[in-house]
Write a structure and sequence with these properties.
By secondary structure, this protein is mainly beta. 0% of the residues lie in helices and 50% in strands. The protein is globular.
Length: 88
């Protein structure tokens, strides 16, 4: 349990906003809006974190490169559903 312990998920230069966290398959999955790439206004990144706070994917993995806004994430024991809002 990670209560009371702060640690970075992503330390890249540029802003990250609106994290969404879900626990599945004995680890945490963290999704967020990210501005590190200049080819697009925003991107969605994700990282896996163990229950002891070890970040498996330092600085995250690119999930979607588009003009998007992070909204929510869900898991049904098989697949993740990441809901975003596009720029329209």
């Amino acid at each position: 349990m990670l209560i009371g312990r702060d640690f970075p998920i992503s330390t890249v230069y540029e802003a990250q906003y609106y994290p969404a966290v879900i626990f599945a398959n004995d680890q945490y999955y963290v999704f967020w809006e990210d501005y590190r790439l200049y080819r697009s206004d925003k991107a969605i990144y994700a990282a896996r974190v163990t229950t002891d706070g070890t970040v498996i994917d330092p600085d995250g993995k690119l999930i979607l490169l588009d003009r998007t806004v992070m909204a929510a994430v869900a898991f049904n024991s098989v697949s993740f559903l990441v809901v975003i809002q596009d720029s329209c």
